[in-house]
Amino acid sequence: MSALEVRGLSASYGTGPAVLRDVTFSALAGQAVAVLGPNGGGKTTLFRALLGELAPTSGTVAIAGDLAYVPQTERARLDFPVGALDVALMGAYARTPWYRRIGATDRRRALDALGRVGLEDRARERFGALSGGQRQRVLIARALVRDARVLLLDEPFAGVDRASERAMVDMLDDLRADGRVLLIATHDIEQARRWDRVLCLRGQQIAYGAPAQALTTSVLEQTYGAEIVVLEDGRRAVAVQHHDHAHQ
Amino acid sequence: MTEILRSGLLQRALLEVVVLGAACGALGVWLLHLRHAYAAESLAHAMLPGLVLAALAGVPLVLGATGGVIVAAALIALAARDTRVGAEVAVAVTVTTAFALGAVLALSPAVPARLGELLFGDLLGATSGDIATACGLAVAIAALLAFGYRPLTLAVFDPVAAPSLGVRPARVELALLALLAVAMVAAVQGLGNLLVFALLVAPAAAALRLGGCVGGQLLWGAALGAGAGVVGIVASAELDTAAGASVALAAVAMFVVAALARPGPSSGFGGARRSPLAALGARR
User: Fold this and answer.
1) What pTM was computed for the model?
2) What is the mean pLDDT of chain B?
3) Cβ atoms < 10 Å from Cβ of B74
4) I need a surface site. Which of A97, A175, B36, B228 has the fewest CB within 10 A?
């Protein structure tokens, strides 16, 4: 049985035109899905629709278990005085009634989660003082405290150096071994080849499948349009990136 | 000092300003974290017509302040909806209009209270009712800040992921602004339309420099707000200066001392979000 099943999903902002149409895919427990597409291609919209922040105009979403969103770390306020442990504990906020303190079980869980991402010794450190890769791992720990079965990761490798990137990939593999589903929004086509499935979006679903099948030259050209440069053998492709984008 | 202890007038003023200072100092910390200092100042100034109308009609100023805040907030919200105008221009235009309207009304001969009292407050005229109001406000703010700690933290720290963690940042901000309006209504009579803002922002700005965590900042804000009240009232009695203005200056002096002591970047300013100064410069 699929841990995540999306059928015919379309979504729009307010009464505007659909910004995402006809998305149909499913993922088994333990699978990592790269969500590839240009800026404004619908990656953020897909995540918001899955999170229930955006009501789909059509289609259905079925998720086995809880869902957590792991934002880009620079979207958090780095000047805000919270420690790594405080941030991990935010994963327990939703299940703690407003009049209760965060319980000892959740504190232990948060410390365990920081341990799993290799940051148990940084629990007291200020979030903003950590490196980009460490901050990303703290945000993943927060999703673990939430005990989410499906993690939506928004450009988790942006602003992360090579060494941290390798550590992060190992960590994500570890989460897959738990049977969690990972949706990884990325610009990086080489990165996308590393995961079990690839979902290519450009306002609508262009392709879904194993990287070897899905990432063809024609699919990449449809996904990125003029923004793509496909290198000689068709195996390597480089997306021209525009970083002055604003997420909706 | 002995004069202050003997004078019932000064005792009441001291009590009023200490309670208000503590409440506003703590509230101000979140206000700065949410980068709503500009909105706070605007709201304070825009309630002037309400105050003047209340003085004209002879009803308690609290009623006028309440009406003034509600109308000002509604006008700002309405004007900000026009995307051609933009939120900051909308605020600026609304506030200037309201303030000018208030001044015009206040210059009519029928206004019993002097315009100066509405603008600069009348701390020495604090009644037992005013003090009771201030205490009620302080308790309400303490309770709401204690129970609102987690939603406020998420709304400030991570508004993008907050909805997925069970918190709607827009609602949290609205709730804080509503609380702010209540605080200003309670404090405006003592501190005045122009000076109430000083207690909301200056102690909090100092607290952001001094506190290592949010809890510490809230405590610093409350302590410095109350401290500014004491220093201001004592100075005004000793030096024979205006009470409200002395409190405002004491609060600002505390920020200057804190800024000199901790010259590092303060966590409340300089960000990209909603800072009017940033908006004047180039877009990021």
Assistant:
1) 0.83
2) 83
3) 11
4) A97
**Mapped to the 3 state alphabet, what secondary structure does B20-78 carry?**
HHHHHHHHHHHHHHCCCHHHHHHHHHHCHHHHHHHHHHCCCHHHHHHHHHHHHHHHHHH
Question: Does residue A141 sit in helix, strand or coil?
Answer: helix
Chain A contacts to B (CB-CB under 8 A): 51, 53, 67-71, 75-77, 79-83, 86-87, 90-91, 93-94, 96, 98-99, 139, 146
* Residues on chain B touching A76 (C-beta within 8 angstroms): 157-158, 160-161
Interface touch A80/B212, C-beta < 8 Å = no
Instruction: Report residue B2's pLDDT band, with 50, 70 and 90 as the boundaries.
Output: low
**pLDDT surpassing 70 at residue A242:** no
Mutation target vs A (from B34, B157, B273; most A CBs, 10 A cutoff): B157
B97-130 pLDDT per residue, tens: 888 888 888 887 776 666 777 788 888 888 888 8
Q: Which fold has domain B8-272?
A: ABC transporter involved in vitamin B12 uptake, BtuC (1.10.3470)
What would the pLDDT profile of B26-73 be if each residue is shown by its tens digit?
999 999 999 888 878 888 888 888 888 888 888 888 888 888 888 887
Q: Report the alpha-carbon distance of residue B64 to residue B48 in Å, rounded.
A: 9
Please work out, in degrees rounded to the nearest 5, the angle formed at the alpha carbon of residue B201 by the alpha carbons of B199 and B203: 65
Q: Are A21 and A10 in contact (CB under 8 A)?
A: yes
Q: A46-60, A160-174, A204-218: which range is least confident on average?
A: A160-174
- pLDDT tens track for A31-45: 999 999 888 889 999
Question: Domain boundaries in chain A?
Answer: 1-65+149-162+179-248, 78-147
Cβ-defined contact of A82 to B147 (cutoff 8 Å) = no
Question: How many residue pairs bridge chain A and chain B with CB atoms within 8 Å of each other?
Answer: 67
Q: Do B165 and A79 touch (CB under 8 A)?
A: no
Q: Choose among A67, A94, A99: nearest Cβ to B147.
A: A99
ipTM reported for the complex, 2 dp: 0.84
**Nearest chain A Cα distance for residue B180, angstroms:** 21
Minimal C-alpha gap between B263 and chain A (Å) = 15
Q: Nearest-CA neighbor of B61 among B124, B136, B117? A: B117
Confirm if A16 and A24 have CB atoms less than 8 A apart.
no
Cβ–Cβ below 8 Å for B165 and A99? no
The superfamily (CATH) of domain A1-65+149-162+179-248 is P-loop containing nucleotide triphosphate hydrolases (3.40.50.300)
Look at residue B3 in the predicted model and tell me its pLDDT: 64
